[in-house]
Amino acid sequence: MGEVTKTPDGEFLPGTLDMLVLKALSRGEMHGYGIAQFIQRASDEVLRVEEGALYPALHRLEVRGWLKSAWGVSDNNRRAKYYRLSALGRREFERETEFWNRVASAVTRVLRAV
Amino acid sequence: MSSRRHRLVSLRARLGRLLFRTRLDRDLDDEFAFHLAMKEAEHRRHGADARQASREARRQFGNVASLKEQSRAMWTFPSLESFMQDIRYALRTLRRSPGFTIVAVLALALGIGANSAIFSLVDAVLLRGVPYQHGDRLVVLIGNVQRTAVERRGNSFPDHADWRAQASSFDDMAAYTTLTLTLETGGDPQPITAEAVSAPYFALLSVAPAAGRAFRPEEDEVADRDAVVMLSDQLWRRQFGADPAIVGRDLQLGSRRYSVVGVMPAGFTGVTDSADVWVPFAMSGTPLANRGNRGFFTLARLKTGVSIGQAQTEMTAIARRLEAVYAATNEKRGVEVTTLSQLVYGNLGGSVLALMAAVVFVLLIACANVANLLISRAESRHTEMAVRTALGAGRARLLRQLITESCVLAVIGAVAGLALAKLALLTLVSSSPISLPTFSQPELNLTVVLFTIGATGFCGLVLGLVPAFRVRASRVADALRSSRGSTGGASRSARGALVVAEVALTVVLLIGAGLMIRTVRNLSAVEPGFDASGILTLNVTVPRLPQPPAMPAPVPAAPGALATPPGPPPFVTTAADLIDRVKSVPGVTDVSLVTDVPLSGGGSAIFYGAEGDTTTGAQTAPRAYVHSITPEFFQTLRVPFRAGRTFELPEISGASTAVIVSEPLVTRFWPNQNPIGKRIKPGGPTSTAPWMTIVGVVPQLKYRGLPNNPTADPDIFRPLVDRGGYGMIVRTGGDPAAIEAPVRSAIRQAAVGLVVSGVTPLRRLVESQTAQPRFTSWVLGVFAAAALTLAVIGIYGVMSYLVSQRRREFGIRLALGASTRTIVALVLKHGVKMVMIGVAIGAAAAAALVRLIATMLFDVQMTDPAPFIAVGILAVVAIIACAIPAVRAARTNPATISGTE
């Protein structure tokens, strides 16, 4: 449970949330709220990340060793937990992106077939 | 909603801080708080006011508690973490319903406490066994004789010596017997118990003296030569102030001075659990060279790997060899090999096991009641469970939660139960009419605590599983749809099964208790043949006057230096003087002396021949127990004469040939004849002893045991002449205990050096004969009553519940014109069916289990009404418990029903 990224009108593919989190962090370190904001904005508000899914995902990835975290101070001077990719996480991100692209293009090909 | 959730969060946080507030918790709080703050700010940017923003942020965030739970599960050892959480949660839930918790804990505490108490008896009697190293290999060899039945007789020293030389099954053997000696201390002489033991005794028991030495083999060789003594720790402390220089000192035991050679360690009282001192076996007065004089037992230790059966086979072979060589003394003589624990605990084990079985039943009934409560709770918590499932708690997690809850209950119950067991043990031990050996006192030791933990775990698991099955069976969606909770057929049949089980268990207990109570009633109805009320019994030891010529030199005589005088000096007082003095005590109506007080375990048997008898031979010589009495004996005990009279003055002498016998003796040899003037003589038919003439016949007394004498041998009474010790029976019109002090002082005034011991009302000796069955039936009765109470509460609870579930149905039926009688009948039918099934199962189980207590029953027929009455009571009470809810159901007002839906 919680591995589901929701679109406004329903569920999305399981496992994609991890990939989107890794993508967000591939650009630099971020706190949880920032990651949610990034995904929402980058998807043109199509993908909205539920907190109930995001934090378990973050903690799971951290336990797995793909993310590292540190406490820092946010732009508005509040204590916040910042996540960044570990070397392991970066490799995993590349593998998942590659896998996703393959699957996505395959699905697209199927849909376009006459 | 939000404030409630907030309360929940803060409550959880507070509890968390209380138990183990971790950094992780704080981090999670901070991280979520930051997120919420950012969200709130975002909403306010979009124009919401502060309250709206906060509410919206929280709504979107979802369940913080559940999120934290998930994260914490990832970070920590999830099982331990959630286990602690389950316990915290369970404690909180239990605190929220104190009524349920108190009832459940009380039931479990009673069940578990009673189990721990009885188990500590099992531990003391059956598990711990005798407290010696290799105790399981210690056996006792007891000589027996094959007559119409095999009878225990004891051993003779030559036999013992031959066994020791020939048998290869044993590490070693030691002869032992007990004596009563008089300890002269300068003040009042004290009767003390000595174990006379041969040298290997202490090594066999693996007990070494705490000071000094044990006996040497050469001290077993010559009778009455080596006057050496070992002291018990208790006597050493009580009498000699724990004098460290005691070894080597002398002490006066009766007429001999003994040299103290050792002190035994604290707690050691010998295998007879009675010894104040130990003397060499050769000092016991047992003739060391007479093969036919049998009386003592032999302690032996099996070699490692030798079974008791192998030892028995070897000893029987040796007995046959001795029979071939010494036909005159050893014909039909065998040896019984029995374990020391069997000898010490006897049939106590059976009683204790029966009690254990009974108390397990009580626990099962208590569990059934608590399970029943838990089912009700599980149903009322249906919605809670459904919500938790919806919030992401796994089904396995919920099961674990329920089991944790019942385990927490069971643990609280067990702690209370152990405290209860401690109390129960004190009462059990102090009020118990059966006496356990001093080394086998029941206690709450590690074994008992482990047993309690096991019982607790069992209860927790069973109790958790019952409602857990309900959770499994229920569908979350159903539960959420109907706030009333679903009460499917599964629950109803589970409750029905509980009722049936409770009734069945109770029936077994009631039948067992009924049979035991009937046994006790039968036992107390047994007439001993004498009137024991108002009788005080005691023993007097009478020393002889000092040797007239030889005022012994102040230097103590060396062992063996005692010269045998031509004739022993007279006793310090006479039987007649003792009787006169005690008779003058106010309140005393009759006094008599006898060699052995009835039911005191004394007495000895002789073979006899009857004049003109041709039916018996050397092998079948009749046997009788001989007692010497003063003429007032039968008057004192209120025993009527069947024929003849008591002894008269000229007959009271050592040379008298007058004899009084009990009835079976004369009906055996002279049926339908006047027995007065018939003659018997001691020894076999070929004996040269003089004939003795029967002057009186009395009924057969239960002189040696109740409800029956151990053997059917009759009694022979002869006139008592002056001797070194008497049993005394004193009759008073009032309470025998009240005359103890004046009787003692009257005896003390008779002469210096008299020792009074074993002062006991005869009534107590009678009662001690039936102590074990009385104890068993008392405890069993308490358990049965507890079971009955629990079962009735359980039945009432279940029936009330079932009725409450069907109120709507009843309301509709009533509205449709059903009579109240129909409704009552409907409910009763259901209840009576369950009770009857339970009674049937219980009765069948009882019939199978009655074997367990068969040996404890006395004169109880299988058609005895007692158990039927007991079960009848149960049935009536159970049906009343069904009827009350039934009547309430019938009074249901149809109008109120629709309102509750």
Walk me through the structure.
- The complex is a heterodimer of chains A (114) and B (901).
- Chain A is α+β, with helices and mostly antiparallel strands and 114 residues long.
- Chain A has one domain: Arc Repressor Mutant, subunit A.
- Helix content of chain A is 54%, strand content 18%.
- Chain A has four helices and five strands; from the N terminus they run ββαβααββα.
- In chain A, the strands form two sheets. In chain A, strands 3-5-4 form a three-stranded antiparallel sheet.
- In chain A, helix 1 (16-25) crosses helix 2.
- By secondary structure, chain B is an alpha+beta fold.
- Chain B has four domains: 2-76, no CATH class; 148-331, no CATH class; 348-391 and 478-525 and 771-900; 535-546 and 570-766, no CATH class.
- Chain B is built from 28 helices and 22 strands.
- The chains are: A alpha+beta (114), B alpha+beta (901).
What are the key terms here?
heterodimer, A: 114 residues, alpha+beta, Arc Repressor Mutant, subunit A, two-stranded antiparallel ribbon, 4 helices, 54% helix, 18% strand, disordered N terminus, B: 901 residues, 6-stranded mixed barrel, 28 helices, elongated
Task: Summarize the structure in short.
The complex is a heterodimer of chains A (114) and B (901). Chain A has 114 residues and is α+β, with helices and mostly antiparallel strands.
Tell me the CATH topology of chain A: Arc Repressor Mutant, subunit A
Strand content of chain B: 15-25%
- Per DSSP, the total helix count of chain B is 28
Structural class of the secondary structure composition of chain B? alpha+beta
Tell the overall outline of chain B: elongated
Beta-strand segment tally of chain A: 5
| Measured distance between first and last alpha carbons of chain A | 37 Å
Basic shape of chain A = globular
Mean pLDDT of chain A: 81
CATH architecture of chain A: Orthogonal Bundle
CATH 4th-level superfamily of chain A: Winged helix-like DNA-binding domain superfamily/Winged helix DNA-binding domain
